[in-house]
Amino acid sequence: MNRNQKLSPSDKAFYIVDFVFLLVSGVVVLLPLLNVLAMSLSSPNAVLAGRVYLWPKNFTLDTYLMVLRTPTIKTGYLNTFFYMIVGTCINLFMTVCCAYPLSRRDLVGKNTITMLFTFTMAFSGGMIPTYIVIKNLNLLDSRWVMLLPPAMTVWNMILARTFFQNTIPFELYESAELDGASDIRVLLSIVLPLSTPILAVLTLFYAVSTHWNAYFNAMMYLKSQSLFNIQLVLRNTMNNISIMMNQMNDLTQQERSLALAEASKYCIIMLSMLPVMLIYPFVQKYFIKGIMIGSVKG
Amino acid sequence: MTPARQHNWHQARKGIKRHWQLYLLLILPVAWLIVFKYAPMFGLQIAFKDYMMREGFFGSPWVGLKHFKSFMSSYYFPRLIGNTVGVSLYNLIAGFFPPILLAIALNECRMRFFKKSIQMITYAPYFLSTVVVVSILIQVLSLNGVVNTIITALGGSPISFISDPTLFKSLYVWSDIWQKTGYNSIMYIAALAAVNPEMLEAAEIDGANIWQRIWYVDIPSILPTAIIMFIVNTASALNVGFEKVYLMQNPLNMSASDVISTYTYRMGLVDMNYSLATAVNLFQSVISFVFMLTVNRIARKLSDISLW
C-alpha cells in the first residue's frame, strides 16, 4: 500500500484499536511480573502493609541477601546448576546420537526405529509404572534421577532429525563415503559444524525446559534436602513459611517475621526465574526458530 | 524364502554392515527408550492386576477389571470426571481465540519496534516454570497481595481467591492464557506470513478496508492451522496437566480442584495403591484418545481438515 495515501476513517479506527489491544496485552503480561519485582525490592513492612504496587517502597536488598544466605536456597541453586550443566551435555550427546542416524535415508530400518520413538509421544506408561521402574532401578533419591530419565526428549530429537534432513544434502554423505570417511567421522567433521543453529536451539530448550524449570521429577523422586533443585525449594518455601510463622508466640516478633517471610517469598520467586529472564531477550530468536522448525512436518 | 525376498534381505544386511557405526550411535538412545519409555508401558498391565512389590509387573496375580470397577463406583468418581472435563473444556474454549486475535493484531501492526517489543513481552511467560507461575498467582492474589490491596483501597472487602472453590477453574484457565497466548500465537503468525500477497493486493484494489481484508482473507487462511491446533489441544485437554493443578490445590478448594491426575497421584504415591492408580490413569488416557478421535472425525466431516 502506498504509505502516503490517506487512511480511510475505518482503517484509522482499525489501527487505533490494534494499537490499544496490543498495548493492553503487553501491559497485562508485564504487571504481575513488575509487582513481584517491586515487592522483592521493598522493605518487608511495606510488603506486609500492602503499600507496594509497581515501584519498590523503602528500597532494600536485605531480603535478597538474607534469602541467599539460607542454606536450602544455596544448595538448591547449586544443584540446579549442576543438573543443568551435566544434564544438558547428556541431552545433546543423546539427541545427536539418535537424530543423526535417523536422518539418513540409507539407514536400514529407519522408519521402524523412528516409529518406536514417536509412538512414545502419544502413549506412555504414566505416573505410577514409571515410578515403579525408577524405584526398581534404585534411582530414587539420587542425582541420577534428575539426569537419566530426562536424558533426551523425543520431541527435541525429531526437531534435530528434521533439521539434519533439511539442511544436509544426501549427496554429501555419498561423496564423503567415496572419500573413505566413516559415518561417525562425517558426523563430527561435516554435520555438526553445519548444525550450530539447531545445537543452540537444543541447548536452550533442554537447559531451560528440561532442567531449570524441572519440578515434577524432583517432587516425585527426591527425598533428601541436599539434592533438591531450586523449583522444589521454591515450592517448599511457599508452603512452609506460613506454617513456621504460626509457631512463634511473641506478637511483635511474629509480625516482624511474618513480614520477612512474605517479602522473602517474592525474592525466591524472582531468584528462580531470574536466570531465564536475563538470557531470554538475547536468545528468543532461537526459541522461535526452534518452534518454526518443529512446525515443519518432517 | 522367495528369491526376491532373499535378495532384499541380502541388501539389508549389506546396508547394516556398511553403516554399523550408525547403529552403534543408536545403541544408547534405544536403550534409554526401552528402559524409561517401554518398560513403564509394560507396567500398565498392573492396572488389571493386584501389584505386589515382590512379584513385580509380571508375577502379580490378574484381577481383571476390579480396579476399574472400584474406581467407577467410588464416591469421588462423579466429582473427578466433572472437574476434569470442566477444567479442560473451559481451557479449550477460552484459550482458543486469544492467540488468533494476538496474531492478527501483531500481523497488522505497522510500528516495527512496538510490534517487536510486544512480541517479546507476550512470549516471555511461556519460559517461566509452572512453579513460578503458580507462586506468582498465589502471591499476587494472596490476602496481603496487590490485588486485595487494590480491592480494599476501592472500598471492597478482601477475597481469598486461592482457597475459593468457585474461582479455581477460572484462575487455572486465565493464568494459562496469561502464560501461553504469546507462544501459541507464533503458529498463527507463521500462517499469516504465508498468505499470498497478491490476494491482499486484489482485496485492496477491490476496495476492501482492513476489517474486510482480515475477515475475508486472513481468517480463512489461518483456519486450517486453527483446526489442527484445536484437534491437538483436545488430545491433551483431558490430560489436564498434573503439575499445575497439583500446585494450585489446597484443602479448601479440593471440591473443585481434584482431577483425575491428582487423584492418581494420591492413590498411587500417598496411599501406595499402585494398581488402582494405574487403572485410573489408563482410564483417563483411553477417554482422551476417544475424545481426540471424535473431534478429528467431526473436523473432517465439517471442513476436510484432519490430523489423519
Characterise the protein shown here.
The complex is a heterodimer of chains A (about 300) and B (about 300). Chain A contains 13 helices and no strands. With about 300 residues, chain A is mainly α. The longest helix of chain A is centred in the last third of the chain and has 45 residues. The model of chain A has no long low-confidence stretch (mean pLDDT about 90). Chain B contains 16 helices and no strands. In chain B, about 35% of the residues are buried. The model of chain B has no long low-confidence stretch (mean pLDDT about 90). The chains are: A mainly alpha (about 300), B mainly alpha (about 300). Chains A and B meet through helix 1, helix 4, helix 5, helix 6 and helix 9 of A and helix 1, helix 2, helix 6, helix 7 and helix 8 of B.
The profile of the biggest β sheet of chain B is: none
Number of domains of chain B: 2
- Give the CA-based shape of chain B: globular
Q: Helical proportion of chain A?
A: over 70%
Termini Cα gap of chain B: 35 Å
Secondary-structure-derived class of chain A: mainly alpha
Number of strands of chain A: 0
Instruction: Examine the coordinates and then state which fold CATH places here, giving the name of the CATH topology of the largest domain in chain B.
Output: MetI-like fold
Helicity range of chain B: over 70%
CATH topology of chain A: MetI-like fold
What is the CATH superfamily of the largest domain in chain B?
MetI-like
In terms of DSSP E residues, the strand content of chain B is: under 5%
Ranges of chain B with pLDDT <50 over ≥5 residues?
none
Q: What's the main sheet of chain A like?
A: none
Rounded to an integer in angstroms, the radius of gyration calculated over CA atoms of chain B is: 26 Å
Mean pLDDT of chain A: 88
